[in-house]
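During the second half of the funding period, the structural biology subgroup turned its attention to how the target accommodates small molecules. The most pressing case was iron/sulfur cluster, which had performed well in the primary screen but for which no bound structure existed. We therefore specified the complex as follows and requested a full 3D prediction, including the ligand pose.
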Amino acid sequence: MPKLGLNIDKYLRTQVLPTVWCPGCGNGNIVEGLATAFSRMEVDPTRVVVVGGIGCSGRTPFYVQTNAMHTTHGRALAYATGLKMAQPDLTVVVTAGDGDALAIGGNHFIHAARRNIDLTVLLYNNGIYGMTGGQRGPTTPFGSRTTTSLAGNIERTFDTVEIAMAAGATYVARTTTFDMQEIPLRIQEAMAHPGFAVVEILTQCPTYYGSLNQLGDASDMLIWQRDLTDGVPVKMLNREELLGPLRTGVFRNEKVTEFTQAYSDLCSQVGGNYGHN
Amino acid sequence: MNPEPNKNNQKLVMGNEAVAMGAIAAGCDFFAGYPITPATEILEEMSKMLPPRGGVFLQMEDELSAIAAVIGAAWGGSISMTATSGPGFSLMQENLGYASITQTPCVVVDCQRGGPSTGLPKLASQGDVMQARFGSHGDRPTLVITASSVNDCYESTVFAFKMSQKHRMPVILLIDGVIGHIREPVELPPAPPPRKATFPKIDADSPRFGDAPFVPFGHGPVTVVTGLAHQSNGLAETQKGSHTEQMIRTTIENICRDPEIIDSWALKYQLDDADVAIVAYGITARSAREAADLLRADGIKAGLLDLKILWPFPNEILRELAGKVAAIIVPELNLGQMVLPLKAAVGGRVVVHSLNRADGTLLTPNDIAEFAAKQLNSIEERTHA
Ligand SMILES: Cc1ncc(C[n+]2csc(CCOP(=O)(O)OP(=O)(O)O)c2C)c(N)n1
Ligand code: SF4
């Protein structure tokens, strides 16, 4: 499957395909974007660990041919924090669903962001709990139908970008599975960024979110995503431009002391030599 | 256990400090934790000792993340550990199961407090002995080690690390608020210089799980780790659990057959000619040893079986003991939790008396001796009637 002139097969664990995902699920687009980013960056698969939470999205580590750690529901960032601290020269990418990262794992999300530890987080936002069959979650849009909000969701909705920025993430971007060219670009930027980098990717769950909300099939949902995000062009947005909750693009890209670096400095101050692994 | 205080090179050390020193001696280079009485000193000691050694100390946002970071660090090549007390230990249970199914070496210290819930933060308790075995869902291999002195805290910690690496599993060290906070004069070796952990070379086709050696990320070929049931190559297997079941059975068998574990299972004190055996562990074993002496001074042949490893339970040792004594007394600081496996092990061949309390108060040597004497008298009355 040559993509954009690249052979991304090298970065796919083809022996376990097909995926567990439903036909039309947006997660496949993200895996393609991730493998494309790996391929363009020519990463050494033995030096990369993809850490997944639990959920459809959390299965991603199985499908890319790098080290993989499929953890427990909500805790992927905590596992990744220990792993990165133990071996700071590993590249660690975390894949988590909206429920995983913002409900059960919300605390770890804000604290990992606060530390500014060098992790890349791909937050798959499908607005619903996919794996457990379509229950409402913290990013379910107001009024949406899910199996636990058949009369419409009355809870208010989290804005991942706002939370990530408020908590201290130093690279924050949002894109969608409609924007196929953008996904690998954002992932590359996030991986190259020395600090806590969050890429929220709006992705379609036709099986539950789509069918419960009469949004049609996967391709209809891609168009819906395009319209939802209003085709805001990819560029550095300033604060005033961020008001719409579903703007895409890069919201923050700042260099602030990264946590493993700060830890290394602390060790040196007291005579220790960190990062010898 | 009771060395004279002013001998050369002896220092007054707290149990929790001895745990931290034991961890460093065992090569621990990663600690993640969250403050909680009565375990906090372990966290504080590690925060002082690790950075100058280039090791990692992390204070996490809760115990869920502390144990998760510890497991992540093990897969990053660290020798890792956390320490907590009951409420935190409860929070760690799900991820402890993850460490089991992924065969991840790490050490978890539970410095017990009275429960349930916030309970008795500063007082002695042995209320977590069953949780340490059964707290995480599903079946899994468990190795739970106790300590009844400051010196034990050090030695048991070193042993816990050694076993966790040997058997690729999380090992639990169970102490309590009194052992953790007591200060005793001990002579402990100076900390060794930091050393880099080494791992065997494997190739891409080598198995990663089951009998395979532990090789972390970045130290060998690409590896897949999952908490789903998996094959020995790490790939998930959700329609068939036989590989995972076999892996768990094999680890349990390996632990039970390990001579180092068999030798450390229990200490026998004056049991050779004993008519009554006290079976105790941790802080209670300390009182029980003195109780045995008190009983002997009164002409009752009493001895002590001090359980140094609670799980796996030393069934054989107890079966053997059951054939030799007229009664077994089990003092514990809970509502009689270890009486259950003990009764199962002796199978009705000897009477088992539980002496228990869960109000945060220790059982004194007198409490145990009086209780034992009373039980023996009532056995005699019954046999003479
Ligand atoms: C502790 C725990 N609670 C609940 C579950 C059940 N569970 C599995 S996935 C999931 C939610 C998945 O939703 P999300 O994180 O949004 O990911 P998606 O499947 O939509 O990609 C839940 C609740 C679990 N595995 N573990
Ligand atoms: S349930 Fe939804 S999120 Fe999960 S695989 Fe199917 S379409 Fe994708």
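Two results from this model are relevant to the next phase. The longest strand of chain B covers residues 106-112. The domain at 1-264 of chain B is CATH 3.40.50.970 (Rossmann fold).
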